[in-house]
Design a protein that fits this description.
This protein has about 140 residues and is α+β, with helices and mostly antiparallel strands. The protein folds into two domains: about 60 residues, 2,3-Dihydroxybiphenyl 1,2-Dioxygenase, domain 1 (Roll); about 50 residues, Roll (2,3-Dihydroxybiphenyl 1,2-Dioxygenase, domain 1), CATH 3.10.180.10. The chain is built from three helices and nine strands; from the N terminus they run E-H-E-H-E-E-E-H-E-E-E-E. The strands form two sheets. Strands 5, 6, 7, 8 and 9 form a five-stranded mixed beta sheet that branches. A four-stranded mixed beta sheet has the order 1-4-3-2, sandwiched between helices.
């Protein structure tokens, strides 16, 4: 077997504190923060002179982790917010216990829904929310 587990998903953000706050409001826990730089970082990410401030946030069950990354050098490259049908990584989804309450709390932190909360059969309520740095978070409430 080649893969043992998924350790984390990295998300590059403009404002690390804002992103931490957003994910804490969602219910994730800050595990730690660090500044990383040096030859091992340069060699891994392919950017000479890279320096980043990172934060690890973890889901309540302890199994899901996001690495929030803010580039100090080189500057992050801004892009237009991705459409739902864009190629590549476009969103991360979280199961929530109350989707309407979660959306209301995230909107107070500047998030906005891409459209509305919908119901998929008798199984889920779902929506997409745009958060800090234009990232898209999908929310799912099991019915």
């Amino acid at each position: 077997m080649a893969v043992k587990r998924l350790d984390n998903v990295a998300i590059v953000v403009e404002d690390l504190d804002e992103a931490i706050s957003f994910f804490e409001e969602l219910g994730l826990t800050l595990e730690g923060r660090a500044t990383v730089e040096g030859d091992y970082v340069d060699g891994c990410v392919g950017l000479p002179g890279a320096k980043t401030n990172i934060a690890m946030v973890c889901t309540p069950d302890g199994r899901g982790r996001l690495e929030l990354t803010q580039y100090v050098t080189p500057d992050a490259v801004p892009i237009e917010p991705l459409a739902a049908n864009a190629l590549g990584f476009t969103r991360v989804m979280f199961a929530v216990d109350d989707i309407a309450d979660t959306v209301a709390r995230l909107e107070k932190r500047g998030a906005s829904m891409l459209d509305r909360i919908v119901q998929y059969e008798d199984s889920y309520k779902l929506c997409y929310v745009r958060g800090p740095s234009g990232l898209v978070v999908a929310l799912a409430q099991e019915l």
